Amino acid sequence: DTGVSQDPRHKITKRGQNVTFRCDPISEHNRLYWYRQTLGQGPEFLTYFQNEAQLEKSRLLSDRFSAERPKGSFSTLEIQRTEQGDSAMYLCASSLNQGSNIQYFGAGTRLSVL
Amino acid sequence: DQQVKQNSPSLSVQEGRISILNCDYTNSMFDYFLWYKKYPAEGPTFLISISSIKDKNEDGRFTVFLNKSAKHLSLHIVPSQPGDSAVYFCAAPRGGSNYKLTFGKGTLLTVNP
Q1: Smallest Cα–Cα separation from B32: which of B8, B52, B9, B5?
Q2: List of chain B residues whose C-beta atoms are within 8 Å of the C-beta of residue A95
Q3: Which residue blocks in A1-114 are alpha helix, DSSP H?
Q4: Which residues of B19-56 are buried (b: 16+ CB within 10 A; e: fewer)?
Q5: Could you tell me the strand order of the sheet in which B56-59 lies?
Q6: d(CA B12, CA B84)
Q7: Would you call A107 and B45 a contact, using CB atoms and an 8 Å cutoff?
Q8: Digit-coded pLDDT (tens) for B19-50
Q9: Which one, of A89, A64, A91, A59, lies nearest residue A75 by Cα?
Q10: Which end of chain A is more exposed for a tag (fewer CB within 10 A), N or C?
């Protein structure tokens, strides 16, 4: 059973550039989540998919951010025109659509915007 | 607003002793709580959970206690081991929904040999 995988693990970019991250959830999980974690804070919810439908977006997700899950499997998170304040760990999680609220996290993509 | 609070940024204990990690919440709609453990350069790993219909849940060395009237929960690790050294997060599905988790800021536990 492979866990949630994220790619890349690290990304360094210059301010103003676009970046895209990928998340592959656990295969039978139909729910997929993106969170962001900054230093000294817990993960903060960004957005959530059930299958291919994006059901909720946090206020943290400005219009420079877009997430997709085109076939209900992997997901991508794109940040356009990156800013230094976007520097953070971006975490992906997945779960089954059952009563359990247990979400399984990937190792994250650490973004550094110079 | 911080609906899940972990007021102790760090905790240091000796190997073999009990570790007690605390978490307070403000949203009375929370009815399920989870503890995650995070090692450096890894994602959070689910540890143990508790439903609001219970006041205790135990899994091996880990026990979570819930005091609904005080809006407080705690994670007990006994005996503590050096491999338990990690950041521990308390989390709850937000506002009664069963998907987005609200996390506390975490507590760094260091277990000294």
Answers
A1: B52
A2: 99
A3: none
A4: bbbbbbbeeeebebbbbbbbeeeebbebbbbbeeeeee
A5: B4-5, B19-25, B72-77, B62-67, B56-59
A6: 11
A7: no
A8: 999 999 998 888 899 999 999 989 999 999 99
A9: A91
A10: N
Which chain B residues are closer than 8 Å to A101 by Cβ? Answer: 32, 34, 49, 93, 98-99, 101
Q: Is the pLDDT of residue B82 over 60?
A: yes
Minimal CA–CA distance to B22: which of B61, B63, B76, B60?
B76
How do residues A75-87 score in pLDDT, each as one tens digit?
999 999 999 999 9
What's the rounded mean pLDDT across residues B63-71? 96
Q: Tell me which amino acid residue B96 is.
A: G
Among A94, A98, A103, pick the best mutation site for testing chain B contact (most B Cβ within 10 A): A103
Candidate from B44, B102, B104 with C-beta closest to A105: B44
Q: Which of A13, A12, A10, A16 is nearest to A64 (CA)?
A: A16
Q: What mean pLDDT is predicted for residues A69-76? A: 92
Q: Is B99 on the interface with A (CB under 8 A)?
A: yes
Amino acid residing at A38: T
Q: Which of B66, B2, B91 is nearest to A101 (CA)?
A: B91
Which chain B residues are within 8 Å of A106, Cβ to Cβ? 43
SS3 string, A73-104, reads CCEEEEECCCCHHHCEEEEEEEECCCCCCCCE
Q: What is the pLDDT of residue A72?
A: 85
Whole-angstrom CA distances from A29 to A49, A72, B50, B69 are 11, 9, 22, 35
